[in-house]
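Carboxypeptidase structure dump, as promised
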Amino acid sequence: MQSNIKQQLKDDEANHSRYFLKLMDQPIISNQATKKNKISVCKNVDLPDYQGIVKSGLLDVGITNSTSSLGFIFYGAKGRKEEELFQVPLIIWLNGGPGCSSQYGNFFEIGPLILETNDEEDVENYLNTEPFQSEFQKKYSFIQNKFSWSNDYNIIFIDQPIGTGISYAEKDEEIPTNQDQVAEQFYYALKEFYSTSLSCFNLNKSQLIENYPPLFIFGESYAGKYIPSIAQKIIKQGNIFNLKSIGIGDAFIAPEVILKEIPQYAYEHNLLNEQQLQQSWEAAQEVLDSINDPQKQQISRLLYWRFIRQTNPNNVDVYNISRKEGDLKSSLTLEKFFNDEQYGIRQIFNLKMLPNSEKKYTKCDSRVQKSMSIDFMRADCLDRFDYLLNKGLDIVVYNGDLDMIVPYTAPIQWIKDLKNWKFTEQFLNSETKSWQIGEQSFGTIKQFKNLSLYIIRQAGHMVPEDQREAALDLLKQTIQRSLNKYQNI
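structure tokens r here:
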């Protein structure tokens, strides 16, 4: 029995080694493309652990004489052949930050393979060792995610804006500083994804809109700003990509509203006493004052995080108050997974062929955070949200009830601030219903017309990580509702 187990481990290690070596053999960007706008490319990936088509690559963002590009990993719906992928809805997943990699969503939330570390001293070893050299199979394992969104749908995890995760920014000044620039670069990249000769979805531009797979854009946190901005750009350009719906989870879409909800949430969950609550209100007011002061806007993000620390004297995980520790371990595991030189995991996207060969993968990129520091507390996305609702786009808002960084009480408050959607009052007065699968209750749903609000029980800031089954059910409801709507028009 023991010899059989050893042989199985040996076979598994060989399979993983072959996988990463094959990825290393597939160039993502050619040397000839260094100074041209012909850098978009999509390559097949041989991933033994997944029974479906996997691709990875780069997408040009349209900056002249620049190699700045968005990196991605794409999973075709499980069990589907290449020619069948166009018959399946496509989901784009974006994490937030700003500057945080969507590969966190891939390997810890909704992707087909959940990355786990096998070493209890993993984090401590990583922090005390540079460079880190690991034996991959002793450190990591892939766990099949039975609630993966790729079981039934195509999904692409895009690191954006440029400079984030596996994406690349040739110059810091090319990194977006506002949502209009984010949308402009992403829209260009999306055209590359569909229409270039080397792209994953090479569709002839003359084809009608029905020939594009139905598109759904989902994400969490700061992606709550990205997604309405990108969706507005798509709709204004005629919706050639067949966008059906967007979903934003624990969305940092209305910073001023969210800021006002945090102290009361912390107090009601016994994280603050009355004196600390008052101090938290004062710290919140300092952040609010900085938002409208041109001389302080640059530091409003720093003031915000100082306010968060002050509102968390017990050092709970502000992303899930039921935990004492944050997501440091998973973050470092992800960084090691991409940067481990012994097994060539950095080579997944052939980073050494880019001009900056020393670029290392980080879960969150400080350059992007710096570039978008003023945008961080800017409240300009509610107008975009209004616009999309009035255009009839289906929108899903969802929030975990254990999230302190974006309390579950915030969405209903910023929905009240929607001034131009003619159904705001009807939505607010609509019935809140229990959300159940069988006998299991996942939370509540509030719906009217093309807006839905889900509150998920026992979930924090990363809902699909804490409640995978609930997140998948939410997605399926959204897709079915949107497709039925368009079929009946």
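The first strand starts at residue 41 and ends at 45.
lmk if u need the other ones
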